[in-house]
Amino acid sequence: MKSFSLPQSMNKWSLLSRIAVVGFLLVLVVFGAVPSYWTGNWSWAKLPPVANLKQLKVIRNEGLEIPGWQTLEQATLNIGGNEWSFQTIKQDNQKPVRLLLLPQNGPKSQPQVEWADINGFFQTYAKRQTNGEWKTDSYTKLLFTAETSEPTASTAQVRARLFRAWNGRQTFAMMQWYAWPEGGNPVPGHWFWTDQLAQLHRTRVPWVAVCLQIPIEPLGKIEESKPLATSLGKLIQSALMTGSFAQAPSGSNE
Question: Were 195 and a residue from 9, 26, 205, 246 both cysteine, which residue would form a disulfide, CB within 3.0 to 4.6 Å?
Answer without folding.
Answer: 205
